[in-house]
Here is the input.
Amino acid sequence: MTIEPLARADLAEARALLAAACRFDRAAEVADEKLFGAAPAGDAATWAARAGGAMVGIAAVTGDRLRLLAVAPEARGRGVVGGRLLEQARAHAGASGEVRLRTLDLAGNYLAPGVDARDVDSLRWLERRGFVRKVVHENLLIDLRANRRVGADHAAALAAAATARGYQLRRARADEPGLTDAIAAGFGGAWPFEVARALTFSPPGVHVAIAADGTLAAFAAHDGNNQGLGWFGPAGTWPAHRGQGLGEALLAACLVDVAAHHDVCEVAWIGPRAFYEKAAGIAGERRFIVLAKDLRQP
Here is the structure.
């Protein structure tokens, strides 16, 4: 078996492997973004394991995050392919000065905010190799079909109510002036990065609320991460404009967009659960477990 850098020319083969290997995530559909896409923390280092010329595993790491590790089903169970790829990722992170390796929750470009809690085999495999459970994250699922709080009429009514209070709600332009800078100043983190990527969606996957004085009051985005899968977020309202129904109205606008292509919208890495329950209802949820390993330990 050999371990070598993964080239973009190998993307079709990588997609096929991810489709077979990832039972709980739609990794094949966003393979380019997850394997080669940028993140606020930097670009990915990505490798492929090959046996007899065939790709049998993939790993990608950025900074201290193991952003992806997958092994073909037929190559599992011998402790070789996954172990070699994990050691490659660990060595790269250590050589870059990192003191830990953490699973999946790479801000701005994550397949999932942790290992799916249903993936018991992967969780046990990581724990046998010294990874320790650190935190649980949760995604919410919003039904986009049999849901009276999703639809163009509902979104229009919420927008009209906001207009009556002096706000203009509209889709952001692809080159919306000052938007990402304002989000960076008001919210920080990876949000400006994700919103910038959502603006590249067609049409732009960002809706904004503008106050009477022309300043930004609120925003909401979809398809800024896992582009094309219809994930919602990030979204935020500046403090001076909270309590005006802007968050609900912008969520509704985004859900109309997502409903054009998907039956379900996934709200990633949620914060205010009660808000989503009230605004759109919760049809289901997914739980993810983040594990980490101290690279200073054997």
Observations:
- The longest strand covers residues 132-143.
